[in-house]
Design brief:
Elements: H1 12-22, E1 32-37, E2 40-45, H2 48-64, H3 70-83, H4 89-105, H5 107-118, H6 127-130
Helix pairs in contact: 1-2, 3-4, 3-5, 4-5
């Protein structure tokens, strides 16, 4: 905690910049991104819907505390389905298998994340306000 017992308040951009220094992702104009799955690394196209959603998704990691690991992605996908998923069917199609894998890998954590999401609200309804 900073001197004086006060906590620091970060702007949206400052919080994202700190997160991305710790967990770098693809450049904003990258044609693809990589997704490690155990010993495999998949190279996936960086679709427009993903680029539009990624800031809110990464802020969800910060809000929920779910790490940027496979288990954390499973949990966050479940949380987002409970809190209000990104409004594009392709995003839902992409995230649904993550929830299924989470239910197989760590069912209690994944289900708890979904329940926590039901008591929360995602940032996806406010995407226009989040854009820089």
């Amino acid at each position: 905690m900073p001197a004086g017992g006060r906590t620091a308040t970060l702007t949206r951009n400052e919080a994202l910049a700190r997160l991305r220094r710790r967990e770098p992702g693809p450049a904003a104009d990258a044609a693809s991104w990589t997704c490690p799955l155990g010993p495999l690394t998949l190279r996936l196209p960086d679709f427009a819907w993903r680029r539009r959603a990624i800031d809110a998704h990464d802020l969800h990691h910060l809000m929920t505390g779910y790490p940027m690991t496979m288990r954390g992605e499973f949990q966050l996908a479940a949380w987002e389905f409970g809190a209000g998923r990104y409004p594009d069917w392709r995003a839902s199609l992409f995230c649904a298998p993550l929830i299924l894998m989470g239910l197989l890998w760590s069912p209690s954590l994944t289900f708890a994340a979904y329940k926590a999401g039901q008591r929360s609200e995602s940032l996806y309804g406010d995407l226009d306000e989040l854009e820089v």
